[in-house]
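Hey L., structure's done. Input below.
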Amino acid sequence: MLKFFFKKQRQVESLIYSYLDNLRMTQKFFAEALNTCAKDGVCGDFDFLTARTHKFESKADDIREEIKELMYGKALIPESRGDIMGLLEAIDEVPRIFEQILYLIQTQKLVIPELIVSDFNELLFSSLEGCSLMIKQVEALFKKNARVRDLLLEIDHIESQCDHIKRRIITKIFDSDIEPFGKLQLKEVVFAAGNISDQADQVARLVNIINMKRLV
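Output:
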């Protein structure tokens, strides 16, 4: 019986690693889509990369459901089922933000003005760095790596940086002569981009709490 439970535990952990690898692919296509958009605006390549982002986001949903079925089928893992499912739900908000940004640009035919291109790219680079560290931190949790707390501090630092960049961009937008509706559209995209690091920070804090529970 114990052998059966340990096998299920390994299956759950393997699926979690697959889920995180899938998130990396979602992030990759998201970044490529935005890079294409910055160079060429909304074009065929942008639409293709947006569709690829959606494909991997949907696959993440499928993997999460598979994890849920295994866990509630009496798979034993050190953390509680509720903690792990809550963590996966929090992580899942990140690819949803990716999709939100791409769809805002796609449906509203948005072009990032030269005025904020450099700052916007800085915001995205930092946000995605925080996301990558978040993935590493979740892996560290399941591999019982001691870096969980250190990674939280790094992610928290990036989130603070992103908040400063976001405020700087919004100030530039509203100090500019861009027409009012355009300002509101850009503000929405900038806030969504800032939400990536915010959500990565929230996930990192959940991971740290789960890790502390394990140590008690």
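The chain is about 85% helix and 0% strand. Helices lie at 2-40, 44-71, 81-108, 114-142, 148-175, 180-215.

-- N.
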